[in-house]
Specification:
Mean pLDDT: 95
Number of strands: 8
Number of helices: 9
Order of helices and strands: EEHHHEHEHEHEHEHEH
Largest sheet: 6 strands, parallel
Distance between the termini: 22 Å
Strand order of the largest sheet: 5-4-1-6-7-8
Low-confidence stretches: none
């Protein structure tokens, strides 16, 4: 049975120098007619849907509608392109990420997909800027669920639809840079691989319960051994 690898994006594969946050905040401000509409709203490791839900609630106490969410998302798509261009991609692709994805692309032992809080459209913009979108045919995205933990069942359903087979939790690895990514794996009883290239250090990811934590993906061979289910160092 192939192993299903579910990658996060921001802080795991790429960093855009805060372009994503600035873009979504600008989209909220423009759509809602406010300033600094995301002040006080946590964003790291959360879905775009829950970020916008909490922002709207904080602004006027109402529940966000699908129409309003989509209008903010559409504005976000335009502001995101501008913000990434302003910083020329920011830090860009994180160490080892491209080499790892290139290696996995030719390995029939793995299926590679996304599990990300990003809307699918903004995920495509971010990864497309760095020519990484080509590595991902599918995934579970920010519009698919409000709570990040609910994205894993979406991913498993899509895996089943694509392959015609179920997959055991032991054959799934959630890969990300936040304790929320680790929580997805714990709730879903899958394996988790943390990487401390985002806003959380090794200790935070280990405390959250990540099975393995890497400082980055530079040692591609070591990362591959872990994804194959081998104990680090063997």
């Amino acid at each position: 049975m192939p192993t299903l690898l579910l990658f996060d994006i921001d802080g795991t594969l790429i960093m855009t120098g805060g372009a994503g946050f600035r873009a979504i905040q600008k989209a909220v401000d423009l759509t809602m007619g406010v300033e600094r509409g995301l002040d006080g709203i946590p964003v790291a490791g959360r879905t775009d849907s829950i970020i916008l839900r909490d922002a709207v609630r904080a602004l006027d106490g109402s529940d966000i509608t699908i129409d309003l969410r989509d209008r903010i998302r559409d504005t976000y798509m335009g502001t995101l392109r501008d913000e990434i261009d302003k910083v020329q991609g920011g830090p860009g692709v994180l160490p080892g990420a491209l080499a790892l994805l290139d290696l996995l692309a030719g390995d029939p032992a793995f299926h590679v997909a996304l599990l990300t809080g990003n809307f699918s459209q903004t995920a495509a913009i971010k990864l497309g800027y760095f020519d990484l979108w080509r590595h991902f045919d599918w995934g579970a995205f920010g519009e698919d669920a409000v709570d990040r933990n609910d994205l894993l069942p979406v991913a498993l359903d899509r895996y089943r639809a694509r392959t015609g087979h179920d997959i055991a939790p032991a054959d799934v690895v959630v890969i990300g840079d936040t304790p929320n990514d680790v929580e997805v794996a714990k709730v879903g009883r899958t394996r988790s691989v943390g990487v401390s290239t985002g806003h959380f250090d090794r200790a935070s990811l280990e405390e959250a319960g990540a099975d393995v934590v890497f400082d980055d993906f530079s040692d591609v061979a070591a990362v591959l051994r872990v994804l194959q289910g081998r104990v680090p160092g063997t």
